[in-house]
Amino acid sequence: MLVAHHLGKECLPDFSSRYSRHDFTLPQLFACLTLREHQRLSYRDLVALLQDSPEWRLAIGMTKVPAVSTFCAAFGVLTLGRSLTPMLDAITRWMRERRHLGKTIAIDSTLMDVHYRSRHYEQRCRHRSTSEKRSANARRFRSARRTPKLTIAVDTRSHFVLAHRPRAGMGSDAPDFAPTLRAALERNRGAERVLADAGFDSHDNHRIAREELGVRSLIKTGIGRPSSTPPASKYRRQMKCELAGPQS
User: Fold this and answer.
1) Using one digit for the tens of pLDDT, what is the confidence trace for 7-32?
2) Residue 219: which of 184, 158, 189, 177 has the closest Cα?
3) pLDDT digits (tens, 9 = 90+) for 221-239
4) Which residues pair with residue 153 across a beta bridge?
5) Integer Cα distance of 71 and 68 in angstroms
6) Average pLDDT, stretch 168-179?
7) Are the beta carbons of 2 and 34 closer than 8 angstroms?
8) Is 162 helix (H, G, I), strand (E, B) or coil?
9) In terms of Cα–Cα distance, which of 230, 240, 235 is closest to 217?
10) pLDDT over 90 for what percent of the chain?
11) Could you write out the three-class secondary structure of 115-158?
12) Which terminus in the chain has less CB density within 10 A, N or C?
């Protein structure tokens, strides 16, 4: 909580607007929200915890406990604005000065479902009548376009997130590789290699990493349909040999 408050004081303005009531500063609210995420609390549980811990409030200069609506509004200001990038830069600088960052970056992505229907249920709906099949396909198309997707680059030594790339929609992971890697190398210029799974398998990704950015890329092949022929590109053929599993 104290570290988050110190970080907020370095990177955030005291208030989001000159017309605000100025009861609490953004660094104070950011420190409280960091405590909430660390303890996995709801907003109401966070208010109760702060009411029971006056010494914690005084440590960050907070004389009273904010309301639940105040925390909700602060969360929107801090996460939807441009406040996260300078804070991420500052934390990376601290870790680089203390030599906590390693030489290897790992990149991966994940999808987050936002509805209660499972993909299996939607697939089963498409095997019914023609009208139900059309409606199920339309629902899947709309949900696929709205599905949140997050790609992150992590330092494997400290597990620190160096870069993130959020977007909406499904599809291949490969287009997110280069911009995420570029952002990660801006914060950890000492990295020498990057790891990724088969979802990022692409000759262009190898070429950008090795020839343009100067890091060794290790990306497992195997995206798409299985094939007995070796990959066409030089780097993907090399990965096929280097990252082959144990021979049976």
Assistant:
1) 999 999 998 888 888 899 999 999 99
2) 177
3) 877 666 677 778 888 888 8
4) 107, 163
5) 5
6) 89
7) no
8) strand
9) 235
10) 54
11) CCCCHHHHHHHCCCCHHHHHHHHHHHHHHHHHCEEEEEEEECCC
12) C
User: What CA–CA distance (Å, rounded) separates 46 from 36?
Assistant: 6
Q: What are phi and psi of 162, to 5 degrees?
A: -90, -30
- Other residues' Cβ atoms within 10 Å of the Cβ of residue 197: 15
Q: Is residue 125 predicted with pLDDT exceeding 90?
A: no
CB distance 29 to 74 below 8 Å:
yes
Give the pair of three-digit tokens for residue 61. 């200069």
Q: Return the residue matching tokens 């996260």.
A: 84
**Token pair listed for 13:** 């303005």
pTM of the model: 0.75
pLDDT in tens, 68-86: 999 999 998 888 767 788 8
Q: Which residue has 């490969």 as its token pair?
A: 174
Maximum CA pair distance of the chain?
70
In the predicted structure, residue 136 carries a pLDDT above the cut 70: no
Q: How many other CB atoms are found less than 10 A from the CB of residue 152?
A: 18
What's the helix, strand, coil split of the chain in %, to 5?
50, 15, 35
Would you give the DSSP letter of residue 12? Answer: S
Q: Tell me the C-alpha to C-alpha distance, in Å, between residue 83 and each of 8, 13, 22, 134, 171.
A: 9, 9, 19, 43, 29
Q: How many residues does the chain have?
A: 248
